[in-house]
Structures are given as C-alpha cells and as structure tokens.
TrEMBL record:
Gene3D superfamilies: Single-stranded right-handed beta-helix, Pectin lyase-like (2.160.20.10). It comes from the Eukaryota. This is pectin lyase. It comes from Aspergillus nanangensis. GO terms for cellular component: extracellular region. PANTHER family: PECTATE LYASE 18-RELATED, PECTIN LYASE A-RELATED. The keyword Secreted applies. Belongs to the polysaccharide lyase 1 family. Its main location: secreted. It catalyses: Eliminative cleavage of (1->4)-alpha-D-galacturonan methyl ester to give oligosaccharides with 4-deoxy-6-O-methyl-alpha-D-galact-4-enuronosyl groups at their non-reducing ends. Residues 1-21 form the signal peptide.
Length: 381
C-alpha cells in the first residue's frame, strides 16, 4: 500500500512538472532571431474564448498555452447582407462581402448576391507585446477567428497553433494572421486552413523583423477566387520597412499571392516547399526585394507572375550564387523544380540589404520535401 501511494505521488509530481515545463521549442532563425515572447512567465491555460482574448490583449508578458480548440464561431452573431460575385456565382467561386464598400467601389459590374457570414471571423484577436501563444501537442487551435499583431506590438511568438475556418466562402471573411506596425514576430509551426481572405498579411505600415517558419499554408478550399478549389489569397507582404524570413514552410494548393511582396519589403525565402499551385506563387511589386534559395517548387504553374516590378535573385547557379558570400557570409543555394514554370532572375544588387542582418541558414534543396512535409504545421513540433 505504501509502495503504490508513493508511486502515485511520484506520478503526480512528474505530471505537474511536465505541465509547468511547457515552453517554446527551438528559436527563431533569420530576421526575428532573439525574439522571446512571454519569456519565462508562468504558463496560463485559458479555458474560455474570453479568457484567451484577455490573456492575448492585456499588458502582462505571458506564455499562453492552448490545450484544445477555441471556437469563436457564432460568438459575435452573423450578418446577412448584399455582397457581390466578382468571379461569378459558380458553386466553387468565392463571393465577396461588401466590406468598406469594396463591391460598390471596385466591383460595380459584379452581380449582387446575398451573403451570410459569421461576424467573429472578420476581425482577429488583438495580440499585445511580449506574448507567447503555444499549442500543446496537436490540440492547440483557434477556429472562426484570427490573430492581429498591430499598433506597435512587439516581441511575440506564435507556435504550434492551427487557425481555421474563417468564412472561407467569402472574400473579406477574415485573415488568419495580420501584422501591421509591429516588430520581432515569430510565427512557427502554425497551420492555417479554410480562410476567407489572407492566410498571413503584413499591412502597409512597418512590420520590421518577422520570421515565418515551419508553417503549413493549406490552400485547399471549397470556395476560391479562381473557382478551382485553390485559394488565391495566400501570403501578402506589404509594408514600409519589413524584413521577412520564410523558412521551412509548406505552401500547398494555392492559386495566387503566395506570397505577394511589395512596399518596402526584404524577403528571404529559404528551404520552403511549394506544392500544387494552379496560378502563381510569387507576385513581386514595386519595393519588393526577394532572395529565394534552396526552395522546392513542384507543380507550380507560374513560380513568379509577370511582370516583376521589384527585385529578385533566384540563386540560379553555383557561380552566380557566390555573390551571396559578401553579404550573407556564405554562398546561396540553388532552388529545385518539378513541373513548374520559369524562375530565373539574378538581380544581385539586392543582396547588400542582408549585410549585418541575422540571416537564416540554408541547406541544399534535396532534403526539403521530406523535411518540410514531416515538420511543417501544427502538431509537428
Ligand atoms: C549563372 O547565372 C548567371 C545569371 O543568370 C548567368 O549570367 C550565367 O551565364 C550562369 N552561368 C552558368 C554557368 O550557367
């Protein structure tokens, strides 16, 4: 009897110390290197959606652990309105909510349609500075609402969380993760799926230093702006002074803006895996500076959309890739392609922008497919 009691206490102690020890796995590489989020704050486990909103938005440094799905669907009611159908009314086409009079101002020729959507999806949860949002195992999820890191927030880690089901049938139905006017943000092992608008969007103000790593951007959807089951609104990187590292991400089944890069944005896309895209992956507007190396593009109709108005270095061959050494401290890695369009531009003038910055390491593209498919997304820490 005594023996089994002490075994039980030992088990209780072990469980308690495991629960207290949950913490961020690994560390950010690239531009957001050094981000600490909520640091060593005692972990809190929200139980309700209101507690989650409160922990994310208050002014305390926090480690917030999600051990279940927080479902916001229905929590703010629904709206029934007149919207529009810019891509037609076919069953696979997204319709648009008339948000900010978008239909009226920009799609005046599109047929009017009735739309009914969930209000919670349309605006994400505010995330304040010094937060770590961490999913436990494969159970941390937020459904029906996204996250917004805006208005001067900094030092934030989001790891091992799924964000899903934001009015996927409607453009303007919601963005999964919004950044605008922030600094030092690390988004890691996040899965986004069935989203109305952007999976990840960096708005027009400065977003400074951001790392997006090991995420699974799942563009498979029953409704799409290209009416083909491939989500158009993937990753939108705008901003007046943005440096974004994208490493180890799995960008699947999209048809556009995956990513769109413009404003004044330096993007280092390294060791990502793009698979199965019916339109374009990169769209590079004025002020987009893109170094893409060590990635794999498989079944990507247009790896980059024409014209390219910004600057692009695609790490084309070993001799051209030596130009990276002066600024990144190493040569760049070539990309790998299968059944994909052209991606060949060697504007090495943008490489000087990497000088003195924290730059993610690169491996040869050969291991990218196996490592990304095994590691990317929530539940794959
Ligand atoms: C390497 O790429 C550069 C830039 O596109 C090109 O000028 C050069 O001819 C290429 N070298 C080889 C060996 O293919």
């Amino acid at each position: 009897m005594k023996y089994s009691t002490s075994l039980l206490s030992a088990a209780v102690v072990a469980f308690a110390s495991t629960a207290a020890a949950i913490s961020v796995s690994g560390a950010a590489e690239g531009f957001a290197q050094g981000v600490t989020g909520g640091g060593d704050a005692t972990a809190v486990y929200p139980d309700t959606i209101d507690e989650l909103v409160s922990y994310l938005g208050d002014s305390e440094p926090r480690v917030i652990v999600l051990s279940k799905t927080f479902d916001f669907t229905g929590s703010e009611g629904t709206s029934s309105e007149t919207g529009c159908a810019p891509w037609g009314t076919g069953s696979g086409c997204q319709l648009a909510i008339n948000a900010n009079d978008w239909c009226t101002n920009y799609e005046a020729d599109a047929p009017s349609v009735s739309v009914e959507y969930d209000n919670a999806g349309t605006l994400g949860i505010t995330v304040a500075s010094d937060k770590t949002l961490l999913g436990e195992g494969s159970s941390g999820a937020i459904k029906g609402k996204g996250l917004r890191i805006v208005s001067g927030a900094s030092n934030i880690i989001i790891q091992n969380v799924a964000i899903t089901d934001l009015n996927p049938q409607y453009v303007w139905g919601g963005d999964a993760i919004t950044l605008n006017e922030c600094d030092m943000v690390w988004i890691d092992h996040v899965t986004t799926a069935r989203i109305g608008r952007q999976h990840i969007v960096l708005g027009t103000q400065a977003d400074n230093r951001v790392t997006i790593s090991n995420c699974y951007i799942d563009g498979e959807s029953d409704w799409s702006a290209t009416c083909d089951g491939y989500h158009y609104w993937g990753i939108y990187l705008d901003g007046s002074n943005d440096m974004v590292t994208m490493k180890g991400n799995y960008i699947f089944h999209t048809s556009g803006r995956s990513p769109k890069v413009q404003g004044n944005t330096l993007l280092h896309a390294v060791n990502n895996y793009w698979y199965d895209n019916s339109g374009h992956a990169f769209e590079i507007g004025s002020g987009g500076y893109v170094l893409a190396e060590g990635n794999v593009f498989q079944n990507i109709a247009a790896v980059v959309e024409s014209p390219i108005d910004g600057a692009l270095f695609t790490a084309p061959n070993d001799s051209a890739n030596q130009a990276c050494s002066s600024y990144l401290g190493r040569a760049c890695e070539v990309n790998g392609f299968g059944s994909s369009g052209e991606f060949n531009q060697a504007d090495d003038s943008l490489l000087s922008k990497f000088e003195g910055k924290n730059v993610a390491a690169a491996t040869a593209y050969g291991d990218v497919v196996s490592s990304v498919t095994a590691n990317a997304g929530q539940g794959h820490l």
